[in-house]
Amino acid sequence: MNQKVKSVTDPARRVILVVDDALDTLRMLCDALAAEGYAVLVARDAEEALQRFDIAVPDGVLLDAVMPGMDGFALCRQLKATPPWSHVPVVFMTGLSETEQILQGFASGGVDYVVKPLRIPEVLARLATHVRNAQATRLAREAVDVAGMGAVVLDGQGRVAWRSPQATRWLDGAFGADDLEAGATWLQSTTAAAEVWMPMPGGRRLVSRHMGQSGFSETTLLLLMAPADAAAHPRQPEVPLTPRETEVLSWLAKGKTNRDIADILGMSPRTVNKHLEHIFEKLGVETRSAATAIAGQLLPQT
Questions:
Q1: Does residue 2 have a pLDDT over 50?
Q2: What strands lie across the sheet with 39-43, from one edge to the other?
Q3: Is the pLDDT confidence value at 31 over 80?
């Protein structure tokens, strides 16, 4: 098992924590997960599980509901109450199959429930789905507010179909949380003018930029906050980065790996590498750390 734990350092592999006090179950699951390409962490009880989380936050947890000391339900509640860990999907494993126990598992924050004796193909299929969904949700949540910007999607009739947390805060501050119609009217003007702005408290202005079509009859707008004395079109960086290169540099500055950037922006890692080559050349640097240091001077600030 130690060799599997070491593989956590491989960023290309998903990490699964298996929590169970039965050695036979641990061995069976570790072998099955390793065969599927996962890196595996193990814990015999809730205390060990929390220690594993302190070392490396896994991508998913297979959790025995009945264990000595703190049971799986209580452990799951503690994980969900800890912000840095709350996004990790927890799949319960137990011989308890009564409706009351199943409901307790979901109430404590679990996303799924498999009954022992385990059917390994079913466990792997359920786990893969939940890990993939949790990853997509996390990346989407992070992507919408990259570089201190906000995003808004308008439907075919100009109504606000979706807006990111940062965009919501700015629009509520500008128009009030209850006046969505006024905010939508202002946002609609962006599609005709390419870029519009309005004054905000504190000597700043809220800028809305038209980013093009994002789906069937949908329009994506990018919001950012600029100084009030900035030109109508905020000054662009002197370095001629393309919009895609700017996105890649933004995520690089946030400490993301090439694989993470590829997942977030919907491109291959090889394409990310090509963008970084162009970015390094334009910035006149040779390392990621040097590019990150310059990024703070080029990217919009909140």
A1: no
A2: 39-43, 15-19, 60-64, 90-94, 112-115
A3: yes
> What Å distances lie between residue 1 and 5, 29, 31, 40, 68, CA to CA?
7, 11, 9, 8, 22
**What's the whole-number mean pLDDT along residues 13-41?**
94
pLDDT at 3 over 60: no
* Residue 142: per-residue pLDDT: 59
Residue 134 has a pLDDT of 84
Question: Could you tell me the residue ranges of all domains in the chain?
Answer: 2-143, 144-235, 237-302
CATH of domain 2-143: 3.40.50.2300
According to CATH, the topology of domain 237-302 is: Arc Repressor Mutant, subunit A (1.10.10)
pLDDT in tens, 135-151: 777 666 555 555 567 88
Integer CA distances (angstroms), 62 to 112, 131, 191, in order: 10, 11, 47
Q: Note whether 209 and 187 are within 8 A (CB).
A: no
Crossing angle (nearest 10°) for helices 269-283 and 243-253: 90
Q: Which residues make Cβ contacts (< 8 Å) with residue 224, sequence separation at least 6?
A: 148, 149, 150, 206, 207, 209, 234, 300
The closest of 150, 153, 129 to 141, measured between CA atoms, is 150
Of 67, 77, 73, 13, which Cα lies nearest the Cα of 41?
13
* In the predicted structure, residue 34 carries a pLDDT above the cut 90: yes
For residue 257, give the nearest of 248, 247, 266, 245 by alpha carbon: 248
pTM: 0.51
Task: Tell me which fold the domain 144-235 belongs to.
Answer: Beta-Lactamase (3.30.450)
